[in-house]
Amino acid sequence: MRELSPFARNSATVRYLLDQLSSSATSSDDYRSAFYSLGAILSTAINEAFDLSTSKVTIACSSEDADWLTKGILDNLTTAHTSLAVFWNLRANPFDQEDISIAPITKSYIEEIANPAYLIITKSIIYTSCVVRTNLTYLIEHLNPEKIIIASPVMFANAEETLKAEFSPEISDKFNFLYFATDNEVNAEGKVMPVIGGSVYERLGIGNSETKNKYIPDIVKARRATL
Fold first, then answer.
1. Which InterPro entries match (predicted)?
2. Contact yes or no for 28/205 (Cβ under 8 A)
3. 67 neighbors 217 (Cβ within 8 angstroms)
């Protein structure tokens, strides 16, 4: 069952875009566009909730989210300076235990980070939290942000509590969650429903959970060329 956040309940546009993600009839191009647009709306919510205008901000994501969801946020943030960190994660269940998920980083693109006031972590959907946990753990070993914003269109119902439990209060007390909907149903294949309509990698047109790591986001190519 899906529960909309107050922001989504008051926005026909957000509800339409969430339906676009859930629908199997949505083309790859429209699916990508929906993520970009939701990112832009998340960015508006972030700008309204936090004064980033004079702050250094680092925004971090997995590679599959970089060109659409994250770019939508990045293009619309109002900040003094923004750096980008992109991680290629390989999802796995060690020892064939379906209830244990890990997401080791196989490679990364990280721009120079100099003590940002805010760290924004983005993810298309937060379910088991293993990808967010892995990327966040790496970053907090190198950063000490004042606030950590975790932004996602959709979260599983207990993902917020699960993620907080993975960190000490010193870190988790910095967490601020922004999302449009929570879902609490899982189908026979272990996928949250109705959520984002299946495998995000395949629907974005960048392969499956393994081959998607060969994809180099356009945003990384463009930003790397200017450094």
1. PRTase-like (IPR029057)
2. yes
3. yes
